[in-house]
Design goal:
alpha+beta; Tick-borne Encephalitis virus Glycoprotein, domain 1; two-stranded antiparallel ribbon; 24 helices; 16 strands
Length: 744
């Protein structure tokens, strides 16, 4: 066996083993794979063998390109850092109670079950512990431990919080957790004097080498940009590659739209943040019916209808039933009323829901029953008044929000305030039933004034309120997926027409004029999506990259951005590239619309509130967008072989920045993890699959070692199949494997 085959075999074996371990972790647990697989001698030996074989291969080939040598050297340095961490680092936890001192920590070894007390070279005392909340909500903003290091006669005071570590004597302290009574804190400690510096040197070399791939004037990427197949005149015939609510009569009582809209301006604590009731109304209506309105009623009318005329609205077939199994088993229509679920023998979902939770029966029928039961609970909770936390009370700078019918109020609420809360809502109810809409609106205005006077600093700013009302009113992302897919198919149609009849005008416009028009429309779509993401940013105060829904929007945004930039760089290919842009962005937006992704805006976890994390996610999303374009190039290249060579060049132009951004994104994430968690690599399933994906796509860059990829057909087949690793990294981990990153 030749040395190249040995390196290739080790490379394939290692990626396969890592993929296999992530599946084992799903069934055996993190502790098992950490001890018996990732922490095993044979796993380390696999990496060592690959590194050794790779070094020998590079030496024998007498590789003289310093930038390529430096790129591969960076990985050797990173793995050396990992080895030093494995050999010489230690980590553990310290549990502290306020005003208590300790000189020990609990060591956490490779075997997560093996824990023992170890001495510290100094003492540590917890002076105070605080939980900081977002104004007016119970959503945690940060955890903060104030400690003192006692080292002989030398005392050092410090503070440890999420994303804010303290270092003393080569030992780093991280905030980990806290006691339920708020009187104790658990810190994670880590000492890695050799591994971290070495690893960071490797990261620096890697970042430089990756960026140099794109800016090297003599590099492959710069040559691809000037490739003759992409020059004007060389792409004649390229475009032939594409050839192949009606309103119902309103019978249920509702408030007039103007009055319901005014009620929607009331502030409330919802989803652990303060917003206007309009937001809750939209979520309530959409979760029940799957739509943003019902029989011509606005969401505010639907919500207030259930509040004031609940008996009437429980007869309305507003609840959407998903799943054929459930419909057949219980003889349900696609839309039912709440009363349809209660028959002579009681609540018809009761048995299925109990079996789901008590016997772990999670087949399709029981899953559908639980999802329908969740909708029922929305109505039941509203009937009890629990979600309507519209009355704020600020005491000593801390604001709490209360519902009018809470069973228990804290001692800070006086009897008079309690009575005011109950009477206010009773009066709202009476005015609504009596049709005294003028009085109802006046009372709503007085309640809003009361909220502003008693909410402290918990109310959103005027700009945030305006942004959220605009965001609620117009479903920009939903509209855009329909528009982009429609325009994508239109671009496809124009491509076919242009190939069949190149001189024919369509609606008096030349084909070149249609190309310009579609590019302009793509620009407008990009601006609209940018506005959508900007609104979410303004509303939440966080960059919109905190969950699956927002990351799908980000991928679509990057696809359109790359498409527009590519149109400027290669104007003669604008028809082709614009078609890519519309279709891909439309499909990503469609996934965000129909998937199990929650678009609700809320606060992010304290540990995720980091600029490094935002950079990590956005750079990774850019990489996904670029690799999606290589996937489309591959599909079309396989279908239209006469254009396969040109599409291979275009695909490789997308591939290089995709590899660069993926490498940057992965290891920027590692730096963030080291700052936040105390470990730069924990073999979480998403980390592992991101590395697998990086390794799979990196293979194609080695055309000299693997000349088979110089053939367009082989290259396109590989790129199409490689995209399955992206799907696994994003969707497979999120919805099958799980792990720390399953929110993203």
């Amino acid at each position: 066996m030749t040395l190249k085959k040995i390196v290739s075999a080790l490379y394939i074996l290692l990626t396969t083993v890592m993929a296999f371990i992530t599946v084992v972790e799903k069934y055996e647990g993190t502790e098992y794979v950490s001890t018996h697989m990732y922490g095993s001698w044979w796993f380390s030996l696999l990496w060592a063998a690959l590194v050794a074989a790779g070094i020998v291969y590079i030496i024998r080939r007498k590789l003289r390109k310093w930038d390529v040598v430096l790129l591969h050297l960076s990985f050797v340095v990173i793995l050396t850092g990992a080895l030093l961490t494995h050999l010489f680092s230690f980590q553990g936890t310290i549990h502290l109670r306020i005003d208590e001192t300790t000189h020990e920590y609990i060591e956490v070894g490779e075997n997560l079950l093996s824990k023992q007390a170890k001495p510290l070279p100094f003492k540590i005392k917890l002076n105070d512990f605080d939980i900081l909340y977002h104004d007016g909500s119970t959503a945690v903003a940060d955890y903060c431990s104030r400690i003192t290091i006692i080292d002989g006669e030398h005392n050092v005071d410090g503070q440890v919080s999420m994303n804010n570590i303290m270092t003393y004597g080569g030992i780093r302290f991280y905030q980990s957790s806290y006691d339920e009574d708020g009187q104790g804190s658990t810190l994670r400690i880590n000492s890695d004097p050799w591994g971290i510096p070495t690893t960071y040197v490797g990261y620096a070399l890697l970042f430089f080498s990756l960026i140099w791939l794109l800016i090297n004037p003599r590099g492959t990427f710069r040559k691809l940009l000037k490739h003759p197949l992409l020059q004007k005149g060389a792409v004649v015939g390229i475009l032939f590659l594409f050839s192949a609510s009606t309103l119902h009569a309103q019978t249920t009582t509702v408030l007039p739209k103007e009055v319901a809209s005014r009620m929607g301006e009331l502030y409330m604590l919802y989803n652990d943040r303060v917003c206007q009731m309009q937001t809750y109304a939209y979520d309530f209506t959409k979760k029940l019916s799957g739509k943003r309105s019902y029989k011509g009623c606005t969401p505010e009318q639907v919500l207030t209808g259930f509040i004031f005329w609940n008996d009437q609205w429980t007869h309305e077939p507003i609840i959407k039933v998903k799943g054929d199994e459930l419909k057949k088993a219980l003889h349900l229509d696609s839309y039912i009323s709440l009363n349809d679920l209660f028959r002579s023998d009681g609540y018809i979902l009761k048995q299925l829901v109990e079996e789901y939770y008590q016997t772990n029966n999670h087949d399709a029928l029981h899953e559908q029953a639980v999802r329908l039961d969740d909708k029922v609970q929305l109505i039941v909770e509203l009937r009890m008044g629990n979600p309507l936390r519209i009355f704020p009370k600020t005491t000593k700078g801390k604001t709490e929000w209360f519902a009018p019918n809470q069973h228990r109020y804290p001692l800070t609420i006086t009897g008079e305030e309690n009575m005011t809360m109950r009477q206010t809502f009773n009066h709202l109810y009476q005015y609504a039933l009596l049709g005294q809409n003028g009085e109802l609106m006046k009372l709503v205005d007085r309640t809003i004034l009361h909220q502003r006077e008693n909410a402290g600093t918990s109310l959103p700013s005027v700009k945030q309120v305006e942004a959220e009302r605009l965001y609620n009113k117009y479903p920009f992302a939903t509209i855009l997926f329909m528009v982009n897919l429609t325009l994508g198919f239109m671009a496809l149609f124009l491509a076919i027409r242009r190939f069949a009849k190149p001189e024919e005008r369509l609606l008096r416009l030349k084909h070149s004029q249609w190309s310009v028009l579609l590019s302009v429309l793509l620009g407008l779509s990009f601006v609209t999506l940018s506005l959508t993401m900007a609104l979410r940013w303004i509303i939440s105060g966080n960059i919109p990259l905190s969950n699956g829904y927002e990351s799908m929007l980000s991928v679509a945004w990057f696809v359109m951005l790359i498409t527009l930039a590519s149109n400027i760089a290669w104007r003669h290919l604008s028809s082709l590239i614009t078609t890519f842009g519309f279709m891909l962005s439309g499909f990503f937006l469609l996934v965000s619309h129909i998937g199990q992704m929650d678009p609700a805006i809320g606060h992010i976890m304290p540990v995720l509130n980091s600029p490094l994390l935002s950079i990590h996610v956005s750079v990774i999303m850019m990489s996904y967008a670029l690799l999606a374009l290589t996937f489309i190039c591959g599909l079309i290249g396989l279908l239209m072989k006469s254009q396969a060579n040109m599409l291979q060049v275009l695909s490789r132009i997308f591939l290089y920045p995709a590899i660069v951004t993926m490498g940057l994104g992965i290891f920027i994430g590692a730096i963030w993890a080291n700052i936040s968690w105390g470990t730069y690599w924990s073999w979480d399933p998403k980390e592992t699959w991101a590395l697998i994906t990086f390794m799979i796509y990196a293979v194609v860059l080695h055309t000299q070692s693997f000349p088979v990829f110089a053939r367009a057909s082989t290259y396109h087949w590989y790129m199409v199949m490689a995209f399955s690793s992206i799907i696994m990294t994003y969707f497979g981990v999120n919805y099958f494997l799980g792990g720390m990153h399953s929110y993203a």
